[in-house]
Amino acid sequence: LAAGRRPAKIKPGQALAEASVERLRPGVVRTVLGVAAVGGGSALAGVAASAAGSDAANASLGVVMLFMLAVALLGPILARLCAGLFGLLLRGGDASASLAAANSRTNARRLASAITPIVLAMAFASTLVFMHTSESHVASEQLRDGITADHVVTAPAGLPADAADRAARAPGVDAAVSLLDTQVLVPVRGGGETSLQGTATQGVSGSGAQLAQVQDLDVREGSLDRVGEGRIAIDRTLATATDTGLGDRLSLYLPDGTKAAPEVVAVYGRGLGLPAVTMDRASLDGHVTSAFADTLLVSGGDAGPLAPLGEVTDASGYALAQNVDREFGAWANYMMAAVLGGFAAVAAVNTLVMTVLDRRRELHTLRLVGSTRRQVLRMLGWESLLVSAAGVALGTAIAMITLTPMMRGLTGEFPHVPPLLYAAFAATAVALGLAAVTLPARAALRDRGA
Prior knowledge:
Order of helices and strands: HHHHHHHEHEEHEEHEEEEEEHHHHH
Strand order of the largest sheet: 4-8-5-9-3-2-10-1-11
Transmembrane segments: 32-52, 64-90, 111-131, 331-358, 379-401, 421-445
Distance between the termini: 34 Å
Protein name: ABC transporter permease
GO molecular function: transmembrane transporter activity
InterPro entries: ABC3_permease_C (IPR003838), Macrolide_Exporter_MacB (IPR050250)
Largest sheet: 9 strands, mixed
Radius of gyration: 30 Å
Number of strands: 11
Number of domains: 2
Helix content: 55-70%
Domain ABC3 transporter permease C-terminal: 335-446
Strand content: 15-25%
């Protein structure tokens, strides 16, 4: 109703005149809302940068939504800026490129309607996919650096209860530690609320000194030597999320639901690639469904005497197998990125196609004044490249503004963006843009009634 008040009052001739000329500036309300969205996104980015764990992730989700809203609201302004920036390159080209630059600068609203869906597709897909690649990259590094054992023994049905003792008696073995992998529930505060978070946990058969010989957890505070009954070690991210420090007691629930409050005697830094909680094996007795250990880490000796216990590999082979399993588990993220990116890509293609079809009269006029069919298609191709490049650049900027504080809070590292994967995203956006413009343009130029 508010938008229709002014058109309802003006004269028909004035309405037609204004409709034929694009307004130089968007409406005041739209501009104010867009600036507010930018301010809100920037503020949330600052909050995410100073937060950790789930708080950083939750704040970052607001960042991406607010910045995408800002792009939609401030689209004409951003489009004019992009047209001016990329137009500098086009004006140095031939007549088709110069005309494309002039068209883009003059028709900023039309350009904005084409850029916005590409921005959404690029921002959504990049955020979802590169969030996983960043976590996976850090986890792989931590796992590779954290396993210092010479041999790693695993078995599909679990290892014998005496596997560590039998391995320790093998010639040349310096240390043998079996690990029972499970989960505990830890109350974690996030967004002003407390929820139970499933946390990967390893039950260690040997002492802290023996564990240090086969696994480097990157201890930041305390000592693993004190890990034992009623005493645990935790990852620094979990310590931050639960506001727990050295000497504090961490409330948690064991796998069978039993409540416990062990003392934190060490804080380490490799809780993403390795389990975030380390406790002695005896503390889990009677609280897990299976008493069999999952992994046996052995330092020193040969692989031959360990073969009867299970499948023997080295640290790098074990890390590679774990990374493969992690990639198989990432299909949900990739599927979500494909669905959301696909919807945004369809919107972008539809917008570009409709934009070209609405310009049939303009394209036919260019032919009448002497432009060849090839020159018109080249002009549209340059416009499409400008739209795609602007959309990719803005979408990438939003994704990086979102991912940087999120990954700093979750992993302590900057986002990891595989170059080939990013190039594939950008190339797909450009290819879709070219196809969505070129194909309907060819049909429009064949239409004599355009």
